[in-house]
Amino acid sequence: xxxxxxxxxxxxxxxxxxxxxxxxxxxxxxxxxxxxxxxxxxxxxxxxxxxxxxxxxxxxxxxxxxxxxxxxxxxxxxxxxxxxxxxxxxxxxxxxxxxxxxxxxxxxxxxxxxxxxxxxxxxxxxxxxxxxxxxxxxxxxxxxxxxxxxxxxxxxxxxxxxxxxxxxxxxxxxxxxxxxxxxxxxxxxxxxxxxxxxxxxxxxxxxxxxxxxxxxxxxxxxxxxxxxxxxxxxxxxxxxxxxx
Length: 244
Known about the structure:
Layout: H1 2-26, H2 32-61, H3 69-72, H4 81-95, E1 99-106, E2 109-121, E3 126-136, H5 141-158, E4 167-176, H6 181-190, E5 193-195, E6 203-205, E7 208-211, E8 216-219, H7 228-241
Parallel strand pairs: 3-4, 4-6, 4-7
Antiparallel strand pairs: 1-2, 2-3, 5-6, 7-8
Helix pairs in contact: 1-2
């Protein structure tokens, strides 16, 4: 029953987001190309949720519990590979003391879930850390940059610390079915960034892509001369908390 309620809540949020997209298009705040891209993505998600809700309601009508679906219908796993991965990661983050929020709407984006921790152990003292997850059927370099920018904006606006010297560490995490070579090379060689000055209220951006088809994660593997200690620390965090 809880899973069915979560699906309905998520569908309601997506429908609200679609209404906001319509309003922004009419108001000239959104280009037609961007509107088409986002509306198609979220309408597809909404249709998928409707199908899941209908299926679970039918199971309940004939006397089966939703959680018994795997036992009743052969060949239908309880969780998709993506959901299974996200469930494992969410549990790790909770074990590390992160606050986790599912189905988060921010402007014209819908985040699968967000995890944040205001006193995250860092190289010098503490930082504030965010893991922001989004779902994509596929992703290119431009889409990843846009998603990462939205994650940074969200983290800045919802951070707990008002201290300007507190470092903000943000991991924009995209889950995709597949990834092309150009995008994977971008992630591995260019995606990590400093914003503002390190150790004085700066923001560290470290995008991560999890690919379902290969059960693989991609992240920034280079170590620039400036801030060399930072990148090794970020990679250790990714391997510990985001590994498949």
